[in-house]
Amino acid sequence: MIWKMIYNTIGIAAIFTGFQVASLFNAKIRQGILARKTAFRQLEEQLELVPDFTKRVWFHFTSVGEFEQAKPLIESIKGNAQIILTYFSPSVRPNVLEYPHCDAHTCLPLDTAVNAKRLFDLIKPTVLIFSKFDIWPNLVWSAFDQGIPTVLIAGTLHQKSKRLHPIARPFFKQVHNKLTLHCVISESDAERFKQLCGDDSQVEVTGDTRFDTVYSRAITVKMDQSLLAQSSFRYPIVIAGSTYIEEEEILLQAYELLRCGEKNGLLHLIVVPHEPTVEHIQKFCSKLDLLRFSYILFSDLKSEMDLSETEVIVIDTVGLLAELYKICDIAFVGGSFHGRVHNVMEPAAMAKPIVFGPRIENSYEAGLLKERHAAQQVYNASETADIFRELICSSQLRQQMGEIAKAVIVENLGASRRSLDHLERFL
Question: What is the pTM for the complete model shown?
Answer without folding.
Answer: 0.86
